[in-house]
Design brief:
Elements: E1 3-5, E2 12-14, E3 32-34, E4 41-43, H1 58-133, H2 141-144, E5 145-146, E6 149-150, H3 154-163, H4 165-186, H5 196-217, H6 223-245
Antiparallel strand pairs: 1-2, 3-4, 5-6
Length: 249
Amino acid sequence: MGLTNCPKCGDTISEKATVCPHCKSKLFPSNLIMCEDCETEYDSNLPACPKCGCPRSIVNEKAQKKKHKSTIFFITLVVLVIMVILGCNITQKVKEAEYYSNMETVSYTMINGAAEAETAGNLIKRVWYNAIYKERDAETDKYTMENGKFVDNFNNALANLFADEDFITSISEIETNQFEVTNLMKSLKNPPKKYEEAYMILEVFYDDYLKLTISVTSPTGSLQTFSEDFNTCVLDTVNSYEKVKLYLD
């Protein structure tokens, strides 16, 4: 039988000793089992209890294995829970990133459409004004004048403008932009909590954008009311966009 030194007191002891006979320190605590008769703890590698001689119990071994399996099950469960939590966090981050991208896209699509509408609206105002007050303008003359004379009615000038091929293209692009923006806004209806406030600001921007573009594609009222409403829509749209930009990087 081999000898070794007790890790506690340093005295010589048997390699198979489970308790130091000198300092009474327990050895190999991680491999101890309990005797069913005398309740003495001893090394699970021994065939019997060194105190009373009771053989190692199979039941005891099964209990140890069951305890080991329970520990493994618990660790596995904890790992699975952590993986689920991490998976949920990753999914949430992906959704937030996708939502932000859509919010950024619709914002820039709207401001581009608003810029086109502003250009078209300013041309409408000039044609309307020049037709009423018979003022010449290199860009508007082709709408306000016929055969070298001003048209009799400003409605004729506006009709000429809306029949112009280039202007028709401009209006068509504005209407296409409206369609794209409306579809993009539908995808943003259920914002993540992180972007709930941003979505509320974006809705205001969308409403102002629609008022501006509709005022251009379907102008109504007098020159004065159209001009006042149009200018207000432009200002509101720009202000709304500036607020939305605070939520965009």
